[in-house]
Structures are given as C-alpha cells and as structure tokens.
Amino acid sequence: MAEEHRFQLSTDDLVFYRRGVEDVFAGQADFAQIIKICGDYGQHDAAGRYSPAPMIETIIKIWDGRPDRRHISALHFAYYNFCRIHKSLRVTPAMEAGLTNHIWTVKELLR
To answer: Where are the domains of the chain?
Structure first.
C-alpha cells in the first residue's frame, strides 16, 4: 500500500490490540499504544477510594510504521471533549467551556 494511504491508530495498552491491529490492518496503519502509569492517590482511606489515581507517567510504544507523536491520542481527547456528554456537567466539556453550542457527531469531528 502506498505511504499516502496509511492512517494513524493509537490505543490504550490492552495486550490484545497489538495482535488485532496486525491481523486486521496488515501493516497498513501507523500504530502506537499509550501506556498510562498511575500513582497512589490515597486509595486506602475512605475519601481516596472514590477518586481516580493521578497519572504520573505516559509511555508511547510504537509498534508499526511512523505515527506522528503530536497526534497520538488526539482523537480520543477530541471525542471526549466534543462528542461525549458528561454526567456531572450534563453537556460536553466543549459546550461547558463555550467552544460549541451542540454535541458533535463523530462524522462532524472527523471533518
């Protein structure tokens, strides 16, 4: 496949994704995994048990091709902020911040 037809794919570090991407895309994708290392945030006391642990390090493992590090995980954060309603806000973070006045569809995000 020609270089200009490749696309970039990044996932979390679930071990099964690597084989799945190889099987499905057969080397046609620039593929990387994002590994998030979380620290201890007082999960041992009552209040800390319900709080997410802070992320203390992020490691990017590139498995195939040459993914652009500047764009790894950008789509996830765009979806999170523009397409997904958050229970506590009852709107998307982008709507709450005044960046848009509606919930974006994935099609709209990819344009």
So the answer is: 1-67, 73-111
Cβ atoms of 109 and 82 within 8 Å: the answer is yes
pLDDT of residue 2: 42
Q: Which residues of 45-65 are buried (b: 16+ CB within 10 A; e: fewer)?
A: eeeeeeeeeeeeeeeeeebbb
Tokens of residue 95, six digits: 């709507």
Determine the distance from the C-alpha atom of residue 108 to the mean position of all C-alpha atoms in its chain, rounded to a whole number.
18
Sequence-separated contacts (24+) of 87-96 with Cβ below 8 Å: none
CA distance 88 to 25: 37
**Contact, 13 vs 34, CB < 8 A?**
yes
Mean pLDDT by 10 residues, the chain (111 residues): 67 84 85 80 61 71 78 74 90 92 88 71
- 91 near 85, Cβ under 8 Å? yes
According to DSSP, the residues that pair with 8 across neighbouring strands are: 30
CB of 92 within 8 A of CB of 83? yes
